[in-house]
Amino acid sequence: MTKAKILVIEDNFEVRENLEELLGLYGYQVLTAAEGKEGIKLALEHIPDLILCDIMMPGLDGYGVLQILTQQPETSMIPFVYLSAKTESTDVRKGMNLGADDYITKPFEESVLLQAIDMRLQKSKRLKDFSAGDSGTAWNRILETLHGLDKLQELTDKSVCRHVMRKEIIFQQGDKPLYLYQVVSGKIKLYWVNHEGKEITTTLLKEGDYFAYEALLKDSVQIDSAETLEESEIRLIPREDFLRLIFSEKDVASAFIKLMSNNIFQKEKQLLELAYNTVRKRVADALIRLQDTYATGGGNGKPFGMSISRDDLASIVGTSTESAIRMLSEFKSAGLIDIKGSEIIVLQPEKLRKAPY
Questions:
Q1: Looking at the DSSP assignment, which residues form a beta bridge with residue 189?
Q2: Beta 80-84 vs 102-105: how paired, if at all?
Q3: d(CA 138, CA 150)
Q4: What pLDDT is recorded for position 249?
Q5: 124-147: buried (b, 16+ CB within 10 Å) or exposed (e) per residue?
């Protein structure tokens, strides 16, 4: 049975040839590149399941390869393992801070390399199962496997339903958690405020999504604030009832833990994007994120449109309101979007999603 596809980016011919032979013996499909730019081209063309990359290479080094690939939607989630003779702790730390999944020093034992590859591929598969699309999509996939879903639904249905107005704060960062919440209708954002007072949206919520479970499960204060993007309806499930269900239904507990793991992954990815992507790229990604979260099926080919304040959009992007407005104006001039009052209409989503910025 054919195993995963691995891309090896290594300028040393002997090392590259040995890796190709070794991985081939264990059933992996192997692609090879002798330098960074060629490796990026192959990664984008073939979308490997894992990348092994040297650091010191002529032209574009391994650090540059990782920075570029993490900015591309198609390759940003591919496990990335450095192979390098550089053993200084600062080198290792630099690679890991850029988002590498592992760092193996040369020379290495075959068993160590194969074990690392297997572990990273297994982790990647688990993340793909639960992190494709937004957290709500991941949650829906988890729910499909739950034996205790009926009890969770019963608990949700009998809870209090509350009407909340647009821009209303549901809870704030640092509050003691009292409820598990579910979105009945409307749109809600979770956000946190950094030490400089800048607001950054971490999660977009839609109908059916549960939220605020992290603080309940960790018995901590709220790590985010929650605010409505539009007039909404939410259900408030009391803390005690939710925890009682968690302790009595193993499948429900497992589902929420998996969802927490997915959220951590998404937030780490978002922080990398904030650090390395341009404002232009981040605004484009924010518009696609809104579409992927809130576009409903069966739109008869009608472009996705949504009314959103420019402050809220800037919070999703992680930039100033003025910068977000400037980018929207550029996208409108380029014919990628249309703007009607507060509504933004995405006319060419694929160009926003794939074009380099």
A1: 204, 227
A2: parallel
A3: 19
A4: 77
A5: beebeebbeebbbbbbebbbeebe
**Beta carbons within 8 Å of 170's beta carbon, 6+ residues apart:** 164, 181, 188, 226, 227, 228, 234
d(CA 266, CA 43) in angstroms, rounded, equals 22
User: What is the C-alpha to C-alpha distance for residues 179 and 315, in angstroms, rounded to an integer?
Assistant: 25
Residues of the chain with pLDDT under 50: 1, 130-136, 142, 145-148, 298
Condensed to tens digits (0 to 9), the pLDDT of residues 296-335 reads 754 557 899 999 999 999 999 988 999 999 999 999 999 9
User: For residue 222, what are its two tokens?
Assistant: 């709220």
Q: Convert the pLDDT of each residue in 83-119 to its tens digit.
A: 888 767 777 777 777 778 888 888 888 888 998 898 8
Strand partners, 32: 8
State how far the Cα of 98 lies from the Cα of 101, in Å rounded to an integer.
9
Q: What are the residues whose beta carbons fall under 8 Å from the beta carbon of 279, sequence distance 6 or more?
A: 317, 319, 323, 324, 327
**Nearest-angstrom CA–CA distance, 40 and 73:** 13
Residues β-bridged to residue 191: 201, 225
Cα–Cα distance for residue pair 88/324, rounded to 1 Å:
40
Question: What pLDDT is stored for residue 72 in this prediction?
Answer: 80
